[in-house]
Amino acid sequence: LRGIAMNPCQRPSLDQWIVGSSAKVGVSNQLILANPGAKPVTVSVAAHAGIGKAELGADSTVVVPAGQTKRVLLDGSLSDQDRVAFHVTAQSGGVAVSMQSTALDGYTPAGVSFVTPSQAGRSLTVPGVRIDDAAGAASLRIVNPNNSPVSVNISTFSEAGKKPLPGGEAVKVAPGAVLDLSLEGLPAGQTSVSVEASAPVAVGARSTSRKAEGAPTDDAWAAARPAATSGSAVYGAAKARIAAVAGAQRADVVATPISESGREMAPVRASIGPDSQGVLELPEGAVAVRYESSAPVSAAVATSAEVNEGVGIDWVPLASSGLAEESRRIALG
Fold first, then answer.
1. What is the C-alpha to C-alpha distance for residues 180 and 143, in angstroms, rounded to an integer?
2. pTM of the full predicted structure?
3. Which are the contacts of 182, defined by CB distance < 8 A and separation ≥ 6?
């Protein structure tokens, strides 16, 4: 197996989505559940596939002991599914969730990645999806957890602003089903994607990279990120850039790269127009970054590195303090 993959720190939560990977021959998936609490937590895992909800059998309920991490090997629970997603809920107490996915195409490495959590919603943004100019590919994955069809409209972001994805208007997703849409034809580089849905959905996006025909490939799974005015990430020794999407307000973003020794490096700045994407190139020698923005942005770090005969790629979310993400507005009638 060849590639690059970083599993960032995850905050415990009661309700999370893992949108990515497949259940095919040569693919291995491990769900990683960490319980930082003082009591055991019972976790329910619901699976969705291309045609609708799928049965996980004994893996649908997992007890995670207090202060421990449990790995659940999903190989064999599902079979011959090109598209999968998992809804992870805890009955009491929160768990931190991610999924390690590795793939082989015969004897050829076909990707190693960590799929990080998403939340369901009607308006979602996936920042920093890599569009390869070689033989790679990219796609958007949409999960409909509802009991009725959902209609979605998909748009992409660039420095020029927001525009509809060709063929991405009024797309129907069947109840319980997982749908993949190709992002082929978009300009090479980093793009970001928004999904507006008639009912809550969960989304993710896959990028793949291949240096040449027949060479090993690597993949990276991106997740929907909430907008925030500050955040940070550790992404390791790789070529890196931040992709940030502004909302209705212009956002002035200042990113401070951090070296392996912990030294702050010269800041990188970008002014991002309303409903637009900005890309901040991070300097060589940096392994982490923190940012501050004058207005909320949805942001992530996209990385790449030469790995033997191929190009490894990864996607790391820029996480905020979590206070805003974990809070919920409650209206009393």
1. 9
2. 0.93
3. 137, 138, 139
